[in-house]
Structure prediction request, 143 residues.
Amino acid sequence: MTAPDDGSQRVTDLPPGGGRDVTAARPAKTSAAAVFALVFGLAALFCALTAILSPAAVVFAVLGLILAVAGLKMANKPGVTGKGVAVGGLVTAFGLILGGVVIGGLAAVVNDKTQLDRIQHYIDNARAKLPSTQQVRNQLPAK
Prediction:
């Protein structure tokens, strides 16, 4: 059927389905992997804050990291959202893993007597190079 000359559209000219675009009416869905990545990342954070549950924090962080990567891949598909949620899970999980490695490395250094002696030697050398309080006062302008 042809459209009228005034530019309006007749009811009979609507596409099949009553004029609604069925694909546009569906809301985008958030990726389940992205949501679980954030959940596992936050669970790892809460477990890391307690000394008893810190081994579970490592497991949750690794799971969160894996799910965050999967959530980011799924968020690139049409009709799927959750990229920000996946990034939040990725940052939380990766931050906890990186923090755990740093804390573990520091603990290893602190528990090694030769490393502590080396650090103390560096501190003593730095202090020896600093001017004394009297030398600093002598360099200040007089009032």
Remarks:
- The beta strands are 29-30, 80-81.
- The chain has six helices and two strands.
- The chain has a mean pLDDT of 84.
- Residues 27-102 form one domain.
